[in-house]
Specification:
With 392 residues, the chain is of the alpha/beta class. It is 38% helix and 15% strand.
Length: 392
């Protein structure tokens, strides 16, 4: 079956995490993604340890379903080849700092003149304009500047999440949505457009709930001050007797009531369980003592037949082996001719008519250069010459 984005071609110049995760999502749904890389080193993330065979595990996950074309955009011929590819492409995705593509002579204005229907998406840290637009940064910096980091974690020092919120949530996911939206708009407008994705801006929208509460009460958010941020006993993480953890999310009265009854503490079921105040710390301490009486497995067994939003904190190895995770197709068993057997991360959205699929492994550097350029109409002699002079 064809994927939802079958027939669309994306030229992906991005590196590391934000851009490649975005193009992975689109490739999983059927888009033809050509990963354009520097001939000498390619995407830096290819070489980061730990490795599966000769490739980084990061590269193996992020760049499945793509083809790799090496192209030196600093050469005259390299620019011309890229322009020719862009003439027939639907999307160009890049993650350079603002101005880099223009200096190379292949920025949006140039490509738009060649292909008015082109959707051009630039993912940057701080956006295409503004006083910080050319500053270097990473996920931690974007979250620091947009306020998310200021109230993350328990009381005290702000803490980092285990995943890259700004890179993926503010960058990759927003870019993927925006690209598909621009392709849809192109059907009405008959022309493409420029998409400016700032990872700082994108993750800033994740402040939505705290933004709303600040508008209402004028209290500046801080770590551990909110019912969704370690502030309430009914929504927290607790250690078990064997050093593992359970997540409790009994926000609604019906779930809290069941939790109290099942654990033998109906006296905890008071209206103030969902009100701020010093009693929350006392209740947290009582629940903490409760959870340390049993192992995680024993708690899982106890809560297996009741609905009170209490689940085990699983490690990644356990997640990969989980029966339900496998049943949902989120672990895909694959075998590579060089790397051997490995487990690929599955595809989250499930389409009834145009399902996504993992069609190919992450490519070797330049693995598809010959094929892509041949398909573009170039001769074997031309390709050989460009390979010899370092253009590809």
């Amino acid at each position: 079956m064809q994927g939802a984005l079958d027939g669309f071609t994306i030229l992906d110049l991005s590196r590391l995490l934000p851009g490649p995760f975005c193009s992975m999502l689109l490739a999983d749904l059927g888009a033809h993604v050509v990963k354009i890389e520097d001939p000498k080193i390619g995407d830096y993330i290819r070489w980061w340890p730990p490795k599966i065979g000769q490739n980084s595990g990061f590269h193996v996950v992020l760049n499945r379903n793509k083809r790799s074309l090496t192209l030196n955009l600093k050469t005259v011929q390299g620019k011309e080849i890229f322009k020719q590819l862009a003439k027939e492409a639907d999307v160009v995705l890049e993650g350079f700092r603002p101005g880099v593509m223009d200096r190379l002579g292949v920025g949006y204005t140039t490509l738009k003149a060649i292909n008015p229907r082109l959707v051009y998406c630039a993912i940057t840290g701080y956006g295409a304009d503004g006083i910080h637009s050319r500053r270097a940064g990473h996920d931690i910096n974007y979250l620091a500047r947009n306020g998310v980091l200021s109230y993350s974690g328990k009381e005290g020092t702000p803490s980092l999440a285990g995943v890259q919120i700004a890179d993926i949530g503010g960058g990759s996911l927003l870019a993927a949505l925006s690209i598909v939206s621009a392709l849809l708009a192109r059907e009405r407008l008959a022309k493409g457009q420029f998409i400016d994705i700032s990872m700082t801006d994108g993750a800033m929208t994740w402040n939505c709930l705290r933004w709303g509460s600040y508008l209402a009460d004028q209290r500046v958010p801080s770590p551990g001050d909110d019912f969704l941020n370690h502030g309430f006993a009914c929504y927290n993480v607790y250690q078990t007797r064997d050093g593992r953890y359970m997540s409790l999310g009994a926000l609604e009265p019906q779930f809290w009531k069941v939790f109290c009854e099942v654990t033998g503490h109906p006296e905890w079921n008071q209206p103030n369980y969902f009100e701020p105040g010093p009693h929350q710390k006392v209740l947290q301490q009582n629940i903490a003592h409760l959870f340390k009486r049993k192992t995680q497995a024993e708690w899982v067994e106890l809560f297996s037949t009741v609905d009170c939003c209490c689940e085990p904190v699983l490690n990644l190895a356990e997640v990969m082996a989980d029966r339900d995770v496998k049943a949902r197709g989120m672990v895909v068993e694959m075998v590579h001719e060089s790397w051997g057997a490995y487990r690929q991360l599955g595809i989250a959205p499930k389409f009834s008519l145009t399902p996504g699929a993992i069609r190919s492994h992450a490519p070797e550097l330049g693995e598809h250069t010959q094929a892509v350029l041949t398909e573009a109409g170039y001769s074997a002699d031309q390709i050989a010459q460009w390979r010899a002079d370092g253009t590809i």
